[in-house]
Amino acid sequence: MSRDTLSADSLINATKSRAKFSGHGNALGAAGFRTEDDGGDGEFLSSSGETAIINPQDGGFHHILIGAAWDNTAPPAPQGFLDKIKNRIKGESPSSKGIDIDLGCLYELKNGKRGAIQAFGDMHGAYDTSPFIELSEDERTGDTEGNDEFILINGAKWDEFKRILIYVYIYEGAPDWAHIKPQIQIMVPDEPPMIVVPDVHRGELAVCASGGIENVRGRIKLTNYNEYCPGHSEM
To answer: In 3D, which of 232, 31, 65, 211 has the Cα closest to residue 139?
Structure first.
């Protein structure tokens, strides 16, 4: 990937530092998960239809990072008195169970080209050539620092984009969206992050169309879609 390594990597590393700053960094599956109570900068879009806009700086956007984060702590299972004693002896926690969701997007360029970027099917895209979007390797655990996985958009090619639909889908081990608390984070250099937080959870549906970004006269317009679907085709 022949990108500006310093700028792009500093943006990625910034997500890791926020995991430590937030206080979630020592919890199972904390990763880049944030709340409004964590403090620091950032704009939270918590309601369906809520929007935010980022204006390009001199020279354009350079890099646009879309990150997925979630709270990877499953709800505690019902326990009796003997179960609690056994867990104390073994040093185990009944509420710890790794879960995994995957990040993906549907894109449309101004020339009419459409496609999907996601780990399933090895559709990782390309940064320097069309469609100018690349997906990182999936951590598969949700337990690493920073965003659990991310999509990097070549901001120098932003004028060629029309719109992008960002979604997350259950990969394995997820009991309910309400327990996962997924969020999408949009970051560009020298700008506070924009964070989409779905406020309605449909545990029976596997795909969450979390938000979308549009090219509106060269600006980035982010909208909280907050829609749940049975699968990719319905979305």
So the answer is: 31
* Beta strands 63-69; 149-154: pairing state: antiparallel
| Pairing between β-strand 125-126 and β-strand 161-172 as defined by DSSP bridges | unpaired
- The rounded distance, in Å, linking the Cα atoms of 108 and 116 is 9
**Average pLDDT per run of 10 along the chain, which is 235 residues long?**
50 44 31 64 87 88 87 55 47 48 93 94 92 76 55 95 93 68 86 83 82 95 91 87
Q: Which amino acid is at 89?
A: I
Angle at CA of residue 180, ends 70 and 80, nearest 5°: 130
Prediction pTM value:
0.74
Q: Which residues pair with 184 in a beta bridge?
A: 68, 196
Beta-carbon contacts of residue 211 (< 8 Å; ≥ 6 apart): 45, 166, 184, 186, 196, 222, 223, 224, 225, 226
* Contact predicate 209/229, CB 8 Å: yes
